Structures are given as C-alpha cells and as structure tokens.
TrEMBL record:
Protein name as catalogued: Protein kinase domain-containing protein
Gene3D superfamilies listed in its UniProt record: Phosphorylase Kinase, domain 1
Organism: Wuchereria bancrofti
Region (Disordered): 1-20
Domain of life: Eukaryota
Length: 116
C-alpha cells in the first residue's frame, strides 16, 4: 500500500473527529429531553458518530448516561438503540439499561438517556 494514501486517510479522519467534537456539548451545559433537563458531566467515551457522557437530572440530581449522535452523520444507530431500549423498558428486562428520556438539539445532536 502506498504511504501517501495512508496519510491522506489520516487527514480525513482528523477532520471527521473535529467535526464531531465541535458539535458535542461542554461540561455543565443543560440539555432538555422530552421529560427532563440534564446537566452534562464527564465524558465516558466518544466514537465516530458521537459520544457518551455522564449526566445529572436537574430535578433530583440522579446520575444517568446519555448517548449522543451527531445529526449530520447520517447514522441511524441511535434510532435502533432507542427502539431496543424502549421495548426492553416496557417488559422490564433486568440486563438491559432502562430508557429514561430522549431529545434532540437541532443542528447538533440527538440523544437518549439511560440508567448507568
């Protein structure tokens, strides 16, 4: 494989990661779901399409995890996660995280909130 091609791919990956990072929320930013508001906490993990953060629910200070997916990435992984978690929550699957809330910050990301 040509090393020049490897370098060009590296550059595009860096651009992709900067695109993602610029759309993710900063710590202590409030996000509003359908039912609750949450304060963004520490970054747990990030990937190609978004990130997972610890969040605090404003009404009671309980900790949850929020999975964010950047709107412009054309990925539908979060939609599938929502379907699976909402069905599992309805039948009380003890080995799958419970869905707490969902929402969208227009132009930035959509998200689901689940138990940690």
């Amino acid at each position: 494989m040509d090393s020049m091609n490897d370098n060009s791919r590296e550059g595009s990956c860096d651009k992709d990661q900067n695109f993602i990072t610029n759309r993710l929320p900063n710590k202590n930013v409030l996000i509003k779901g359908k039912n609750f508001e949450f304060a963004i906490g520490r970054l747990i993990s990030h990937g190609r399409f978004g990130a997972v953060y610890e969040v605090l629910r404003r009404t009671d200070g309980r900790r949850f995890a929020v999975k964010l997916e950047i709107c412009d990435t054309h990925s539908h992984g979060l939609n599938m996660d929502y379907i699976v978690l909402s069905q599992a929550t309805k039948v009380s699957c003890e080995h799958i995280a419970s869905l707490i809330d969902q929402g969208k910050i227009e132009g930035h990301f959509k998200f689901i909130v689940m138990k940690m």
